[in-house]
Amino acid sequence: MDRNRQIVRNPRRIGGILLVGIPLAFLAYFFAYPLGAILIKSLVVDNRLDLTPFADVFSRGTLRGAIWFTVWQATASMLLTVLVALPTAYVFAHYRFRGKNLMKAAITVPFVLPTVVVATAFLALLGPTGVVDLSGTVWLILIAHVFFNFAVVVRTVGGFWGNLDPRLEEAARMLGAGRWRAFRTVTLPLLRPALAAAGSIVFLFTFTSFGVILILGGLRFSTIEVEIYRQTITYLRLPLAAALAVIQLIGVTSILVGYSAFQRRRAIELSLRPSHEVARVPRTLRDRLVVSGVLIFTTLFLGTPLALLVARSLRTSTGFGFAAYRSLATQTSALFVPPVEAIRNSLLIAFAATLLAVTVGMMAAVIVAYRTGLFSRTFDVLLMLPLGTSAVTIGFGFLVALGKPIDLRTSPILLPIAHALVAIPFVVRTAVPVMRSVRQELRDAAAMLGATPARVWRRIDLPMISRAGLIGAGFAFAISLGEFGATSFLARPATPTLPVAIFRLLGRPGTFAQALALATILMVLTALSMFVIERFRFGDVGEF
Amino acid sequence: MLEVRGLTVSFEGEPFMHDINLTVLDGTVLAVLGPSGSGKSTLLRAIAGLEHPDTGSISWNGESLNGVAPHARGFGLMFQDYALFPHMSVGANVEFGVEGRPGAARRVTAVLERVGLAGYEHRGVGRLSGGEQQRVALARALAPEPRVLMLDEPVGSLDRSLRERIVPELRELFVRLQITAVYVTHDQEEAFTVADQMVILRDGTIVQTGTPEQVWSSPANAWVAGFLGFSNLIDVVVTAGVATTSWGSFAVPDLEDGHHRVVVRESAIEAGGPLHGEVSQRRFRGGHYQVTIKMSDGSLLEAELGEAPGTGEPLAFEIVPAGVVGLPDEA
Q1: Which CATH class is domain A3-535?
Q2: Would B329 be classed as within a structural domain?
Q3: Chain B 104-143, CB below 8 Å of chain A: which residues?
Q4: Which among B86, B87, B140 is the nearest to A175, CB-wise?
């Protein structure tokens, strides 16, 4: 018996070291090292600490303006998104209706769409040739941000709201409170953690917004993220870009720290109820009006830009047709290769990135899910850091750091690595809750039925974990397809990815139709990978 | 006076409560008794205005409440599992219904004192024991002095000994404060203790109405008798005050001649007498034995006996006429 255990334990120890070691090494070399290189670049001159790049940032009016604009547009986007999405969250939490699951999946599509696709769609809808011309105004950016993050609020707040015991609000009503007072004094305070969670995520995403601002902001609106890109690519002012990256990193870290402090302070024990007990079929006239009104608004708001994107991509000078798509095979002045090449590049990179992200991410998830204590918790936070770091900073860091000791900057593996880094937090966040949700009683029950530990793992844990892995793979694939921030730094002119090709086509006169066609293709590819996720998702386990 | 007339509620197209009629007089307690799923909570929620009935009316002192919002009805509802606001203190929970009224703070103190929780104002509701939470919920429902207090299984999640202590306290409180109450429970002893009038609900229909004594002494049908815990339902033929079965006869002076279905209470079977059976099971209940008697034709009778022979032994017994109740014919 004891000897058996010894045999089982030893390989486990080696496996354990690998499980911890590989993700740690990956993060150290591809995340910590490039970030460190940026720090050194911006702060150290001739082996001495030098803060002049920071002074430089604040002495330039455009950069001060960019920092201010970054903060206020993120705040405005967050408030607007919560306001616009709250009614939909309410309807999803409180009512059952036909097609609800389909609709739930559909509203998630904008969130996972590449920024370049969304920006292109809004350019078609609200740009110079659109239905209403909002170009040059901040509204174009804000509306695109709301469109993007709509699902974050519906899923986070709606999910929480759907489990909130409806009797609490009913109790308030029975004590004489009207609808509004019951909402304000009971429901709203109880929703606060979910609102804070959704709000911080939206703030974080819009704080580091890149593609949307670059494409829709013109020369007038620019965020820190866009300035890092411009200072590097356009003006070659690397210390200035590095200083901006550091400022952005400080901003992101303070948001994350503040948020987690808030979460700890606000923890209230709630008696949550399964959502099927909360949701009901709309019965009164008021119910039906609310549900149909909100669903129509949601469909129009999320559907119109995408429908118009597809429609415009099919428009030709004489009517409708595939002319724009056919022209993708011919070379244009915007790219060194025919645009259709970009599809092949993106798919290859996405496969490689998915493989990397799932391998490293699942190893990390095992550590976070099955180990307890300080080490596991620290590891958990470490893994989340790439999520909070802007993709442009990661791309910039790769450019600065990965020339030595091995020059990876020209290697075809560079983009998959960068994409995997962005995707790993998603893989881990999807897998950990699933792994933790395997209840110990299930394992005990299997053991009592005579299963050996190995068989328990194979029959109980593994099937659930592999589904989580598939979901993570879908996310990683979608993320890699749409990744634009890091890619804009790293993609070589001869091998553009889809977002890069779309961006270049948008930047040249006369190739708008081709940009629309490529954006449509990218949207379809992304939607397909999301479809895979919805197929394998079980229940509402998982955090995205 | 609360009146419910012809109330029908359906869920997702399926009728769930049919033609409910009931009246609660001022200062009296109506117990709604029924097994789980019989529609007790739905009835309460409909009276509260939280559920929309298809047809029927709910009125207070002759004034219809149809279309009146829940918060405007002036009714109180104590929820099953209490639904205490988790983000508020005990005091804030109790004050919620009287907030802004003059003397609200004094009212909170007084109500908490009344339920035995004086000085609990600043405690968080998450740290309270089950019994304390129950009393906070009661205090919260009582504070606004509702015209009708509704209670949905108010002691359902407490353990047995606590329940047995609290239910008489509740009855005493209702009487002292002259509260008009609708009390929902699945436990007949609880209903008997607390009620002036009671209704028994089965599958969304009222099957019996009456005082606890009436319900106990003459169950409306075999289902009610079974639900009230009467296990001996026997088909007999009565001739001149004597009921005959395949295993023997016993006196039933109050029943007319003909076929009857009767309930024989467990306490009506006494040891020693003309009837004979065999002890098929004997369980000690502390103070008495619960005995299952097997009769010559294989049918079983349940009895409570002070002394009983062991399993397999013969038993002679009699059936006391006072413990035999005839059930009305079922259509």
Answers
A1: mainly alpha
A2: no
A3: 126, 140-141
A4: B140
CB–CB of B30/B176 below 8 Å? no
One domain, residues B268 and B214:
no
Decide if B85 and A175 are in contact by the 8 Å CB cutoff: no
Tell me the CA distances in angstroms from B231 to A33, A261, B228, B264, B319, one per residue in order: 79, 61, 9, 8, 15
Q: What is the pLDDT of residues A372-401, one digit of tens each?
A: 677 777 777 777 777 767 788 888 888 888
CB spacing of B79 vs A167 below 8 angstroms: yes
Q: Do B38 and B103 fall within a single domain?
A: yes
Is residue B250 located within the same domain as residue B167?
Answer: no
B95 and B206 share one domain? yes
Q: Could A178 and B48 be called an inter-chain contact, meaning their C-beta atoms sit closer than 8 Å? A: no
Contact A461, A173 (CB under 8 A): no
CATH number of the domain bearing residue B283: 2.40.50.140
Torsion over CA: A89, A94, A97, A101 (sign):
positive
Q: How many domains does chain B have?
A: 2
How far is it, in rounded angstroms, from Cα A531 to Cα A473?
12
Q: Which residues span the domain enclosing B88?
A: 2-227
What does B17-43 look like in DSSP terms, one character per residue?
Answer: EEEEEEEE-TT-EEEEE--TTSSHHHH
Six-digit token string for A196: 């804070």
Beta bridge partners, B325, equal: B263
Q: Do A270 and B86 touch (CB under 8 A)?
A: yes
The reply to whether B273 falls in a domain is yes
- Asked if residue B325 is part of any domain, the answer here is no
CA distance A95 to A288: 10
Which stretches of B178-327 are DSSP H helices?
188-194, 212-217, 222-227
Residues B211 and B243 in one domain: no
Note whether B69 contacts A: Cβ–Cβ < 8 A: yes
pLDDT, one tens digit per residue, over B229-280 is 888 999 999 999 999 999 999 999 888 899 999 999 998 999 988 999 999 9
Q: Is B50 part of the contact surface with chain A (CB cutoff 8 Å)? A: yes
Which residues are paired to B151 by β-bridges? Answer: B78, B183
The domain ranges of chain A are: 3-535
ipTM over 0.85: no
Per-residue three-class SS string for A6-59 = HHHHHHHHHHHHHHHHHHHHHHHHHHHHHHHHHHHHHHEECCEECCHHHHHHHH
B200 shares a domain with B140: yes
